[in-house]
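DM from R.C. (forwarded with permission)

"hey, sorry to bug you on a friday — could you get me a structure for this? deadline for the figure draft is monday and I only need the backbone to look sensible"
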Amino acid sequence: MKRLTLPELFVLLLSAACVSILLLAAACTDSTQPLEPDGLNPYFDVAVGTITQITMDPADQQQPAISGDRIVWEDFRNGDWDIYMYDLATGTETQITTDPASQYGPAISGDRIVWVDRRNGNRDIYMYDLTSGTESQITTDPAEQELPKISGDRIVWIEGPGRDLNMFDLATGTQTTVAADPESHFLVHNDISGDRIVWAQKDDVPDNYEIRMYDLATGTETQIITDPIYDHTNSAISGNRIVWLRSGFTPYVIYMLDLATGTQTPVASRYTPADNLDFSGDRIVWEDNGYGDIFVLDLATGTETQIAEPGNQDHPAIFGDRIVWEDDRNGNGDIYMFEPGVVQPPSLQDLSDLVDQYEAAGSITNHGTAESLHAFIRQIGSDLGTGDLDAACARFDHFISAVANKSGKQIEAVVAQTLIDLAQALKDEYGCSS
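My reply, with the result:
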């Protein structure tokens, strides 16, 4: 009889558990099958909703974070990394930092944005208050500070060669060392929600990452999980629940601990590497490095879906039911957003808006080119208004040919292809023959 290895034994036990635990429905799916074109995993449904491109600049935008209607990210359009913000309620984009040094790694909570800042020669934590319009330096120590997170009045970060976990309380103006590691063990993946801070910490015995939590209300530190075989990282917290990733051997397993009940549960299992977990309410998101897509697990329904798009999607962040990520489909890093719901079919207005957006971003370099495309769109609308479908379909073809002819010249190639794809989708919607 074959002797099972520990990973094989876990898979066997997990499969048995799926029979009785509804929440493990996603984990029961075999994700070892070959990839479909464009990284689509055929064993998970595609999430239904609206996908919106937030940034249009041809430089790289990456590492997004979201709180309410506001999305922040690090942006290289000025030749160094700056922090930018987009307000979904007003449709406006704002440059938050202008210092010529690099600012990166933003986090946001309500009206406050925090980030890592190199303007003083080392890495410091800075904050911008959207209500007052003021920027503040949070840390002044010459040591290196990084990985800031914020929840309400509290900011946490990792500091110095000892990888201490520190917190600053904006309400009291006091800084506290939450976890100090005299032996310079590695602390990563810190997160905060209300009174609770979580992180992953690497200890000598065992030589693996484990999950820890500090409760600011009680002043107590708790070891959530330790494991002599597997690493446990990617910790995130939302309210009373903590999630993290178990890795080191396949399968990669996402666990959840409910602090209210003390119940620890494996909620998803993958044979492809997972990374960059985030958590809000009942939804967990992560990037799947095997498929290059974002996956979403809804704890309320026990369903797992994928946001399967062209290119690679990385570094997801979630607030409520809105998910943002970094996307390379256009040849650079852009920020995209997903909102669940009924998908509306494309319209001529969408095509017109896209031309305007690409011209504003400099991806259509000539105003006359943009105007000629708008003229085609107006003519198509007029033809459809009079019921002349044949004429409208012919003008769609003229639009597509005009864009193709200017591709790589007055219109960036990836932008041209996006316009052509949308025009073709509109042709299909209106019933034009190919």
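R.C.: lifesaver. Residues 45 and 243 are 23 Å apart (CA to CA).
me: no worries. Confidence is low (pLDDT under 50) at residues 1-38.
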